[in-house]
Amino acid sequence: MKRYINYSIIYAVLALVGGVFYREFTKMNGYTAWTSLSVVHTHYFILGMMFFLILGLVSFNVNFKSNRAVLFYNVGLNLTAIMLVVRGIVQVLDLNVVSAVISGIAGIGHIVLGVSLILILLDTKKGCIKWMFRWIFNPSFFWYYHIILILALLKVVIIIHVFSFLNFFCF
Known about the structure:
Layout: H1 2-29, H2 40-61, H3 67-93, H4 99-136, H5 139-170
Helix pairs in contact: 1-2, 1-3, 2-3, 3-4
């Protein structure tokens, strides 16, 4: 879990750096049109930071071993982001570069990213099934979650009643 949270922190920093680079590089060159630099920030935030935060939370409860898939996920995400930066710099500076090479390398990055994402999700599914069967047949765990579910539903009912009460007197 700690490793995934560390990955998340690293990708958050890279996302912030990517966003600042996009803003400052386009402003410095007086470029106002769309560029692929604008999506580096969101790629790193969503596919990097958010993905590894969720994976860290899942790995807290589920024991799965997807080290190789996570390594390929990191390679694919960084290759994709690097090619987005390269394509964005080419767009902003209006360089005459062969676009097929950039597209090919970015495509390889996307393929590696997609395949490793599927492998991580399948490994997570396998770990969740093992975790679910381990805890479903534990009687104390079963009753504990029934109590939690009842309390959560009671909380929702109370919140609905409070809002309807406030709505009745406010409007």
